[in-house]
Design a protein that fits this description.
This protein is an alpha/beta fold. The protein is built from 10 helices and 14 strands. The chain has one domain: Ribokinase (UDP-N-acetylmuramoyl-L-alanine:D-glutamate ligase).
């Protein structure tokens, strides 16, 4: 089975807990506390490992929190390649109250020097076994130029790997100008790229095909939240409706979706089956409390319920 690498340029320890009710100027007693390794690519690697895939998580880490991050990744059995940095890895946290509302607090993370940024690209380039798929997911850290993922696209292409990208803003635009294999915007991000409302399937399909037509990506996986997801190539497209799930947490749902989709592709599944697995994993993540992510038994069960329609 072809190998997969994930790159997380701004990883974190995800701290989650629940409280009875968020109130200002009150001492809030937390319960259900947990700490999980986080950041888009790290989350992807966790899910791929759970589903039996071969993956290496590449990420920078520094300080006490960085050491804990590395320990937690290894504790889940995820193969990792850690790039040491001088700054302290960030922590993020989310709180869910008994009403069911979730509040997520995301910090900016450490500033990476030019040498540290280059070391992350070098770590990927020097992997002894070149991955068939390289998945870059998440925001860039302070200090990273907007064209960092564009540089990554050139590095990946030079080693005959396929770049899968999940990011947003100027970094996404620059990478699409360079061209990637697969891009996973959500609906908000695609609206920002196009400046259009994209209120129906036809307009969304047209927007995805416009990206493909200008060689920004070969495949577009558009996640639609409760509506499901759309997977588009130059000449094919599939729509998978969302499953009726009341979410415990939305943390990592997109990462779980993309992890299962890429794993299915690495196993030579068709794009329609990859979409089915992705929607099943994204839905499974909604059933997991805090930052737990998708569990294999839930992915297998929900995959049978996902309806994929060619459009």
């Amino acid at each position: 089975m072809p190998a997969i690498a994930t790159l997380t340029m701004n990883p974190a320890i995800d701290v989650s807990a629940s409280v009875a009710r968020l109130r200002p100027e009150s001492k809030l007693r937390c319960k259900d506390e947990r700490r999980d390794p986080g950041g888009g690519g790290v989350n992807m690697a966790r899910v791929i490992t759970r589903l039996g895939g071969e993956v290496t998580a590449v990420f920078p880490a520094g300080g006490f929190v960085g050491g804990l991050l590395s320990h937690l990744v290894q504790a889940e059995g995820v193969r990792s390649l850690v790039v040491p940095i001088r700054g302290d890895t960030r922590e993020d946290f989310s709180v869910r109250d008994d009403v069911g509302e979730q509040f997520r607090f995301v910090f900016s993370g450490p500033t990476l020097s030019r040498d540290e940024l280059a070391a992350c690209l070098q770590a990927l380039a020097e992997m002894p076994r070149k991955p068939a798929f390289t998945c870059a997911s998440g925001s860039l850290p302070p200090g990273a130029p907007d064209d960092f993922y564009a540089s990554l696209a050139r590095t990946v292409r030079a080693h005959d790997s396929r770049l899968v990208l999940d990011t947003s803003g100027p970094a996404l635009r620059a990478a699409l100008d360079e061209g990637v294999y697969l891009v996973k915007p959500n609906l908000r991000e695609l609206r920002e790229l196009t400046g259009e409302g994209l209120g129906d399937t036809a307009s969304r399909l047209t927007a995805c095909r416009a990206l493909i037509g200008r060689a920004a990506a070969e495949v577009v996986a558009l996640t639609l939240g409760p509506e499901g997801a759309l997977l588009v190539t130059a000449d094919q497209a599939w729509l998978a409706a969302g499953l009726p799930i009341k979410p415990l947490s939305t943390v990592g749902a997109g990462d779980s979706f993309l992890a299962a989709l890429v794993l299915a592709l690495s196993r030579d599944a068709g794009l329609n089956e990859a979409l089915r697995q992705g929607v099943a994993a994204g839905s499974a993540a909604l059933l997991a409390d805090g930052t737990e992510l998708a569990l294999p038994e839930d992915v297998r069960r929900l995959a049978a319920e996902v309806v994929v329609e060619a459009i």
